[in-house]
Specification:
- The chain is an alpha/beta fold and 313 residues long.
- It has helices at residues 15-25, 44-57, 81-84, 106-116, 131-139, 169-173, 175-182, 193-196, 203-210, 215-235, 245-252, 299-310, and strands at 5-11, 30-37, 65-67, 122-126, 147-153, 188-191, 257-262, 264-266, 277-279, 291-297.
- The chain has a single domain, classed as Alpha-Beta Complex (Inosine-uridine Nucleoside N-ribohydrolase, Chain A).
- α1 runs parallel beside α2 (44-57) and α1 runs parallel beside α11 (245-252).
- The longest helix has 21 residues, at 215-235.
- The two termini are 20 Å apart.
- It binds beta-D-ribofuranose and calcium ion.
- The site of beta-D-ribofuranose has 15 residues, from α1 and α6.
């Protein structure tokens, strides 16, 4: 087998973040150098705790989890308990984590790792607001050129917004951070609502997780059951989008996704459209492309991959 791809997962678990972590740990093609937590779906103490719980659930108590920024760069933290519940991982009963957080701050870990590893060999996978990544880029601009790729969940064009009529949650929570990352020149792949809203958790797909008869399979089914209620009610859809695992699925099977290399600029001025990802999908400006912006996904292929991998845990 080829050498595993080295990744850092930056996350605010979140049930869909949790499934993304499980997918990464179940995949030998990936080496998770560290998990960094950020404030987002719930405040930082909870996202950090949830990250530890999920590592243990994956049987990876050797994983290193670093707590990061507890608030966006300039704005007040907005959380999403209305979607994810009070703990961020509401649904099944969860054990207290036995693992401890690393002493180092997540931002220092990201900077040190990118400087220590050969240039172009570490991929960043942000699954929450971009506060940790932007802080690292701002504090250590030399690391930007050393990143292999940033593959993130955030933004939307055709689906526009989920937390406001104009903005997707991860970008809305810290638009200033998103602006830094999108303007940094780093190779960027954007998995937004346009694709995640095509990858819905239908009944047979959720049943397949429960039928595994394993603890991770049961957790995925119960988490999905919990957060589905919100999206089903909101969109009248058969199930809920499983956002964050799309990032990890892209690393494993990029051909499941299609997109365009275009300019994406973040709205940071207007309160009405704050955090909007202004994507030049139709290439109507001469703004230089800065992101591979995904628009299509093979949803059956995605769930086949996810089910196969979670079944290995
Ligand atoms: C994103 O926001 C969070 O609620 C999810 O975990 C996902 O990362 C979707 O907008
Ligand atoms: Ca998330």
């Amino acid at each position: 087998m080829t050498t595993p791809r080295k990744i850092i997962i930056d996350t605010d678990p979140g049930q869909d973040d949790a499934v993304a972590l499980l997918l990464a740990f179940a995949s030998p093609e990936l080496e998770v150098l560290g998990v960094t937590s950020v404030a987002g779906n719930v405040p930082l103490p909870l996202t950090s705790r949830n990250a530890l719980i999920v590592c243990e659930l994956a049987g990876r108590s050797d994983a290193k989890v670093y707590a990061g920024c507890d608030a966006p760069l300039e704005r007040k933290l907005v959380t999403a308990e209305h979607v994810h519940g009070k703990t961020g991982l509401d649904g099944p009963q969860l054990p207290d984590p036995k693992m401890a957080l690393q002493d180092q701050h997540a931002v220092d870990f990201i900077i040190d790792t990118l400087r220590a590893e050969p240039a172009g060999t570490v991929t960043l996978c942000p699954l929450g607001p971009l506060t940790n990544i932007a802080t690292a880029f701002r504090r250590a601009p030399d690391i930007v050129d050393r990143v292999q790729e940033v593959v993130l969940m955030g933004g939307a064009y055709f689906q526009v917004g989920n937390i406001t009529p104009a903005a997707e949650f991860n970008i809305y929570v810290d638009p200033q951070a998103a602006e830094i990352v999108f303007a940094s020149g780093v190779p960027l792949v954007v998995m937004g609502l346009d694709i995640t809203h095509q990858a819905l958790t239908t009944r047979p797909r959720v049943d397949a997780f429960r039928a595994m008869g394993t603890e991770p399979g049961r957790m995925v089914a119960e988490w999905t059951n919990f957060f589905e209620r919100f999206d089903k009610e909101k969109y009248g859809s058969e199930g809920a989008p499983l956002h964050d695992p799309c990032v990890i699925a892209y690393l494993l099977e990029p051909d499941l996704f299609t997109g365009r290399h275009i300019n994406v600029t973040i709205e940071t001025q207007s309160e009405l459209t704050m955090g909007m990802t202004v994507a030049d999908w139709w290439r109507v400006t001469d703004r230089a492309p800065n992101a591979m912006f995904m628009g299509g996904v093979d949803a059956d292929g995605f769930f086949t991959l996810l089910t196969d991998r979670i079944g290995r845990l």
